[in-house]
Design brief:
The structure is a homodimer of 345-residue chains. Chain A has 345 residues and is α/β, with parallel strands linked by helices.
Amino acid sequence: MTGHNSRFLKACRGEEVDCTPVWFMRQAGRYMEEYRKLRQDHTLLEICANPELAQEVTLQPMRRFDLDAAIIFADILLPLKSMGVDFDFTKGEGPKIRQPIRSPQDVAQLHVGDPEEDLRSVFEAIGLVSSSLDSEKALIGFAGAPFTVASYMIEGSYSRNFLHTKLMMYTHPAAWQKLMGTIVEVTVRYLSAQIEAGAQVIQLFDSWVGCLDPEDYRQYVLPYSKEIFDRLQTFSVPLIHFGTGTATFLDLMNQAGPTVMGVDWKTSMSKVSDGFEGDVPIQGNLDPLALLAPRDCLEKKVDRVLEDAKGCPSHIFNLGHGILPQTPVENVEAVVTWVHDRTRR
Amino acid sequence: MTGHNSRFLKACRGEEVDCTPVWFMRQAGRYMEEYRKLRQDHTLLEICANPELAQEVTLQPMRRFDLDAAIIFADILLPLKSMGVDFDFTKGEGPKIRQPIRSPQDVAQLHVGDPEEDLRSVFEAIGLVSSSLDSEKALIGFAGAPFTVASYMIEGSYSRNFLHTKLMMYTHPAAWQKLMGTIVEVTVRYLSAQIEAGAQVIQLFDSWVGCLDPEDYRQYVLPYSKEIFDRLQTFSVPLIHFGTGTATFLDLMNQAGPTVMGVDWKTSMSKVSDGFEGDVPIQGNLDPLALLAPRDCLEKKVDRVLEDAKGCPSHIFNLGHGILPQTPVENVEAVVTWVHDRTRR
């Protein structure tokens, strides 16, 4: 059973820790042989739908590395099920929405289903992981932030310029509002149920919001992300807000009300931290590509992150985005050890 | 014949102007019917290789809109010819390098050819445009910055994470240095010949450098971009430095030594300008997507850019990246008129 005084949770709360906690976005994934082997027999969605398999994949990196937190294995598109939007994963190309949401008529057909029932396998997987995880480790639940989920629903797949998403915002503001409101509703219920099932921390991923200018973020996104954080306050679990390419509006992302701000590798964590009112713990921010670099180069980059973090009130070590499939496991192992050893008080 | 006291050149030099000059990156392109018609009979590379066609395409937007500058029609990959690297454009997918540069051995085979001869069609096109352009208008020459050109050569096409490029930097620093040095040499000769042919302003496009963290920019990119700007100083023409996603190292990009800094739409121009030593004219920064928005939304966004620009010592209106093929020409026309009218002194 997971405990409430793990190193990770303490760092999220800004309390003193014996050393800096570390986890990696996408720490369960294709760079691990164990995962690739399991994927030979099961699709990504099959794993998500099967609590035992999801538990197994969630725990694979925990067995191999001395990570301080597990993150439940799931996909940010799963809640689309509860809005009546069908999707799949195509080999090598990532997610594909079968009928992208492109018009107010499309938005009108969305509904808030029964997330507690539709997404039951995720909550069951959380329950299984929670009861098997060491008490020194934390369990993270997560969801995509409303903008990122909306942009997937609208674009239908990865986009370089988010043309359809921005056009929906600019051309059909009422439909945008309804779409974002629907996503908020489903997401709050999805995350609440994750917490009730045993998630001790929540991370909201706004992976694609960096395509916006700060004013668009303020107008079209902030109110919705803020509503999610506001409504989750009742649970008193740490909430992490993460985006990439958002250097020019991190202050607005922080205004949404998370406990911890996650930042990408292009940002100085100490400068970011200086810009916030109050003491906001910072999570980040090694370039995922650095894990593929020669050992001496990687080491220098890790040390630079740790040095930068000294200017933050509290630090959780992570990458600035998800781990890449080409990453050597030995490098992941080395980084975990370095971070713990070099920050030991 | 182009004059040396056009509104555009004055703004680049920080001199007083009657109203804010305006041009658009990719202002000659697929959003224009005239261009699409010409493309039915000629490939992009055919146009680049034919000075009369390149002149025609360069002038198409000048006839249609009251733009303050023409930019010579060319592609940032053209100088690859002078390094022995073969490439083409595939329909819908953009540029493809036939044999990407992936190893020190690949780099060793590069050479500095004879840019003045290999790229003669570009200089001839500049000569033609220069002699036919109204004296109130300026003529811009350009090249890709070393990082962006190197990343195309290494990745072979558009990349999301620039894996091979960063691995070359981290794993083979000597090969990286040689590659960047080769690109610098060709680029300086390419741009010098453009200026000698009649280009009055030069823009260096570092479109993909936003994938780096500031420290990597400082170490692996800045010295090479700086060398280009340093060596072009001899011509006394304004030099514009442009990148996207570079909000956290605009100060370093400015240290490379341009006359004008171009910024993307995620950045506040007045804040950027405040951060620079001395008075650096700023170019930017409407989101290209805004040109597809309903008129009232577009108008608001243009006004916001103009308001923000009041904090800059001198302003050149532009987009924050290239114009999109889906852009309605009426909106382009409206923006040019608004910018001129609303900034008239």
